[in-house]
Specification:
Layout lengths: L9 H8 L36 E2 L21 E3 L2 E3 L8 E2 L26 H15 L9 E4 L15 E4 L15 H13 L5 H10 L4 H4 L4
Parallel strand pairs: 1-4
Antiparallel strand pairs: 2-3, 5-6
């Protein structure tokens, strides 16, 4: 058997005797590039600046009233007059029960999906009042929607407080006429696009948590 003798390069030998060289042992990786020191992998989202989305508990047989952010700790933002959630209070949360692989048996199935996972109004009514205090909302509760930021038809978590917020009425909304928000048809169009294979589930979820008013344009669906 022929043996090959390996000779260390002058650069490597010099490095071993210099105090300024890295202290990482030969044959190991730099701790900064290892799994222990790396940032956590986003729960949901593509690479390239996409926002990490939390994963909630998913559909439950029995829902309980969820604790809400502290009173007056959340602040609305506005885009061309349309209300947007506070990303610190309502960053969104997805359901682990809905994935790209099971769309046909969940959100895209015939006969519907959302009615089977939606919490009762007994639960959401109490949460809505608490969340209104979180946002300092003082308008008509009848005209405000307790909205899933990532809607149920897009795989949003049904009752995670991070995915629910009191959404004020749109600009020009007639007071006392009930809920009628421009965000709802955006969600429906995204759902249709996901089920038709025009965009992925993750793309739709990402677009709506970043800014629902630009979601369709961002995905080329407007």
């Amino acid at each position: 058997m022929r043996f090959t003798r390996r000779v260390a390069s002058p650069v490597l030998l010099s490095c071993l005797f210099l105090a300024g060289c890295s202290s990482v042992p030969l044959g190991t990786s730099d701790p900064s590039s290892s799994g222990a020191g790396a940032p956590p992998t986003p729960a949901s989202g593509d690479e390239g600046g996409a926002r990490s989305i939390a994963v909630g508990a998913g559909p439950q047989k029995k829902y309980t009233v969820q604790q809400q952010p502290a009173a007056a700790s959340c602040h609305y933002r506005y885009e061309k007059g349309e209300p947007l959630e506070d990303p610190q209070c309502t960053p969104g949360a997805i359901s682990p029960a809905v994935t790209q692989a099971n769309l046909k048996s969940t959100i895209c199935r015939k006969g519907g999906y959302t009615s089977g996972v939606r919490p009762s109004t007994y639960i959401t009514g109490k949460e809505k009042r608490l969340n209104a205090a979180s946002y300092g909302f003082a308008g008509s509760m009848r005209d405000a929607e307790y909205d899933h930021l990532i809607s149920l038809q897009l795989g949003g978590d049904p009752n995670d407080y991070r995915n629910l917020w009191v959404e004020p009425a749109d600009p020009g909304h007639k007071k006392g006429s009930g809920v009628n928000n421009a965000k709802d048809p955006v969600e429906t169009k995204l759902h249709t696009a996901v089920c038709a294979g025009k965009v992925t589930l993750t793309q739709a979820q990402q677009a709506i948590v970043i800014d629902w008013t630009t979601a369709l344009a961002k995905l080329g669906l407007n």
